[in-house]
Amino acid sequence: MKKLFLIPVVILISFFSMELQAKNLWAFLTYGTFNSPEGPFVETYLSVAGNSVKFVKKENGKFQATVNILMTFKLNTEIKAFKKYELFSPEIEDTTKNDFYFVDQQRFSLSNGTYDFEIQLSDKNNSAQPFPYNQNILVDFSQDKPAFSDIELVKSFTKTTNLTELSKSGYDLIPYTYTFYPQTESKLAFYVELYNMERVIGKDQKFILSWYIESFESNIRLHEYVKVKKEVTKEVNVLLSEISIDNLASGNYNLVLEARNQLNELITSKKLFFQRMNPKAQIMLSDIQSTDIANTFAEKISNTDTLKEFINCTYPIATGFEKSFIRSTLKTSDLKTRQQFFYSFWASRDMNDPEKAWKYYKDQVYKVQVNFGTPVKKGYQTDRGRVYLEYGPPNTRSTMYNEPSNYPYEIWQYYTLNNSQRNKKFVFYSPDMVTSDFFLLHSDAIGEVYNPRWKIDLRGRIYSTGDLQDTQVIKAWGDFEQDYWDLPN
C-alpha cells in the first residue's frame, strides 16, 4: 500500500501515504502495486469524509453525496490508463449524522514503468473547482526474482461469498487508508502477496515467512511483535494477518516482511512505515528490572541526576517504548532501574560493546550542544540537534540568516538517509530571531514534517495568505530559498 492523499492543500507524506484536501472536501487515497498471470496492476483505495461533502435530498426522501473523480496514469506523457466516474455515499436520513467515511476501490492494469499518476476530486454538489494532485508510481515486477507486492493495510476482512472489487484471494478486504493508528485502533491487519518463490527454491519447497514491527529510527526489532511461519512455495504465496498493537507505544515504526530459505538466508523483504499514537501503552518494568548489570559500565554511573541526564539525551534515537519510559517512568524510578534501562538501551544497539556505542553517542550529544544549544534548550532538545543525532551530520548545510524577506533559515541535505531514502532535505527556520533556536519547518523525509507551504511560512514576517491552496511565493530580490532547496551548497 502506498501514498495516501488528502485534497488540497496540506499534503502530509509518510512512507506509503499522502493526504489530500480540496476546498471543504477531505479524502484519503492509498495505492498498492500487485502482480498476476495477466500482468501487473495498481489498486487505489479511496475513502471520503462524509462530513466534508454536501448531501442532497433524493426522491425517496433520503440524502446522498456524490464525488466526481478522475484518475489518470501517464507514461512518458502518454496516457496509459484513466477512469472518470462518480462515487456515491451511502444514503442517510439525517444529514447531521454524517461522521463516517465511504470507501471506493479501483484497479488498473499497467505494465512495468514509472507513471505520473494524477487524481482530481470534487464535490458534485459544491461549485468548487477540482484541484489536481500528482504522484509518481513505480510498477516493477520481475518474472524470475522473488518479490513482495505492496502491503495493503486492512480495516477488516471476511470470506468472499460474492466476488466484488474488494475481493482478493478468497477474502473481501476493506482497506485501511491511513498509515496512522490512533489509540482507538487495537490491531494492525494487512494483506500481501509473494511472487516467484517457486522459480528460485523449487516447487513445493519449504521456506520461512516472518513479519514483525521494528522501530523506524533505529531498526530495532520489537520481539513481542514478531510472527514466523513455515510456508510451501506456490505460484503466489498469500499472507493475510493481523498484529495486536493495543500496547504498542506512540512512535514511528516499520512493518517488516521477510522470506528466507531453510538455511535462514534472506531471499526478499518489504517494509511499510506507520505511526502509532497510544498514550495508554504500559511499560513492562519487570522486563527492565530483570536486566543484569553486574560489572557493567552502567553500574558504575552512581549519580542518579547524572544518569537521568544521560538517559534524557537518548530521546532523539529512542524507540516508542523507550520514549515512554523516559517521559513517564524516569522521574520516579530508582537508581538501579535507571542503570538497568540505560544498559539495556545500549545493549540493544550493540550487544558486543554497548559502552562503546554510548561513548560515541555521547560525543555527538556534545557536538549538538556546542552547535545548537540555546539559552533555554539543550542541544539534543532542539530540532536541529534531534535531526543530527537521529540521522548524523548532513552532507550539505546551507545557512541563510540575512535574506531581505525571509526569516533566518538553514537547509540540510542528506544523500542517503537510514540506508533507504535518497536525497532528503530539511528546512529549519528561526521565526522569533531572538533565541537562535531553529525549528523544523519542512522535510521530504519519511516520518518528518511535510509542509507544502514552507516558503510562505518562511516569508511570514512580510507575507501571509488565507488561501490554503496557495503554496508559492513571488520571487523576491535577494531571497534564494528555492535555489538552495533545489541545489544546496
What does it look like?
The structure is a single chain. The chain has 489 residues and is an alpha+beta fold. Helices cover 17% and strands 39% of the residues. The protein has four domains: 1-141, Immunoglobulins (Immunoglobulin-like); 143-281, Immunoglobulin-like (Sandwich), CATH 2.60.40; 285-363, no CATH class; 394-486, no CATH class. It is built from nine helices and 26 strands. Helix 5 packs across helix 6. The two termini are 35 Å apart.
Query: Roughly what fraction of the amino acids lie in strands?
Result: 35-45%
Distance between the termini: 35 Å
Calculate Rg over CA atoms. Answer: 25 Å
Number of distinct beta strands: 26
| Structure class | alpha+beta
Mean pLDDT: 89
- Give unreliable regions as ranges: 3-18
Percent helix range: 10-25%
For the record, the CATH architecture of the largest domain stands as Sandwich
Task: Count helical runs.
Answer: 9
CATH superfamily of the largest domain: Immunoglobulins
**Which CATH class of the largest domain is shown?**
Mainly Beta
Please state the overall shape, judged from the principal axes of the Cα atoms.
globular
- Give the tally of structural domains: 4
Oligomeric state: single chain
Largest sheet: 6 strands, antiparallel
In CATH terms, what is the fold-level topology of the largest domain? Immunoglobulin-like
Put the structure in a nutshell:
The protein has 489 residues and is an alpha+beta fold.
